[in-house]
User: What shape does this take?
Amino acid sequence: MLLIRDEKTLSKEIDSLRKSGKLINFIPTMGNLHLGHSSLFKKSENTEEIRVVSIFVNPLQFNDNRDFDNYPRTIESDKKKLLAERVDVLFLPDAQIINVVKFAFRLGHIARKLCGVDRSGHFEGVAKIILKFLDIIKPDSITLGEKDYQQLLVIKKIIKDLKLKTEVRSYPTIRNKEGIAFSSRNKLLGKKIFLAKYIPTIFKQINLEILEGSFELRRLNYFKDFLEKSGVDRVHYLEILNEKNLSKVKKIPCISRIFIAISISGVRLIDNVRIESKLTCSRDGQIKIYKDINS
Ligand code: AMP
Assistant: This one.
């Protein structure tokens, strides 16, 4: 595995690898690698592609200094995992990479929903670093997890709007046996990890109630209250939105997801899950499964 810290060397190495006829697959991360990350590395393992992984805890996407300082950094064990995964290139840029980031791009309404509401500047920070990485690496494909679903939509938008040739590949969230999504922040929860178990439980319950007939949107308030009464510091949002563009579910049937962000002891967790049937929602907030009479 090549370990590269500066962008010029990375560009040069990638150019020479590309000349040998290989395609470049890029997998950006913030490190503290877990099984969710490994699942992404494995997706392109048996292809002929060169796998480039970046590890960079991007200060531009943290709106809270404490969150940035506390983010788990485990570079030595990450390197070992990447070697075991037989990743070809690890890009470990210095902090000053962000000083040279140019940015003049409108992310639009997708970046203003969900995490965009109370993490001001977060998606602009994500977009800046991703644009920088895409500019250096010019990957043929980028591999992303649905765990950060809103981020996935933002990156798709950047690539589409700038007409870049990078194919976006996205993959489902990997969970532990209790249904908790693997996340680098989980280890910051200590004993309070039990509260994170409520997320998959609530997803299951909402899915069940929708399947059973009708589900009123205001029922989501019940689950928010439940979480806050159970010891979660704050529910930042719990919403059911159209997965294509994060707009509200309306009369026209659409595939949706349940999105949640909560804080436990100051640690923010996000998660989402797809609802497999198409949904409609009436003006008074009744969610129903759409049954196509032709199918
Ligand atoms: P991060 O290091 O948290 O910035 O995540 C790097 C990439 O791994 C992103 O594309 C995430 O969506 C993805 N990812 C994080 N956690 C998981 C998980 N539990 N399952 C699948 N992908 C994940």
Notes: The first strand starts at residue 2 and ends at 4. The chain has a mean pLDDT of 95. The chain has ten helices and eleven strands. Residues 29-30, 36-37, 39-40, 144-145, 147-148, 173-174, 181-184 surround adenosine monophosphate (CB under 6 Å).
